[in-house]
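User: I'll paste a sequence; please echo it back and then give the predicted structure.

Assistant: Echoing your sequence first, then the prediction.
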Amino acid sequence: CDGLFAMTDGALLARGPSFGARESLCKFSAEEHTKLEIVERSSFLRFVITDPDGLDAAEAKHAWEDSISVFEDCLKSSGKLFLCGDRPGLLDAEVLFWRIALPVVELAVGWKSQEHAPHVRAWVERMQKHRSFQLALEGTLPLSDQVVLKLTDMSEAYPSSAHLHRARDRAIGTLTPEE
């Protein structure tokens, strides 16, 4: 995984998976895993809070797509159901971030994971059906409520981002009385 991370203008960025195989990703050290989490969350936040029609929109989208490509390419090239093999492993815990990030990004800026990251989307769906994942989330709010809460928090933290307010309203409008 040499060369997976780069510093650009003081920001840590993910580079596409130039490492040889998914096994490299699965053997990340704790420090490398922490860097990957920082890249994911910073590119997610930047993409979501950037006005889709704003001057920085293309750059924010590029950073997001670089970040998600690490996972997309790993899943696509491995032919495995999970990030590190045929069964969920430690790295598959990343699904906790992606299961909320994907619908938030779609609602906020219209980026559709089904089109741009179908392997990540399928992996999230697979993980959500896995018994260990279901047990881990037992007693938590439904995903739709978590997405609304995330968008509410973000729209309050970034009040000038009108697109976040609209995304939150769309998320609220998708809730059904049973949820």
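The first strand starts at residue 5 and ends at 8. The first helix runs from residue 22 to 26.
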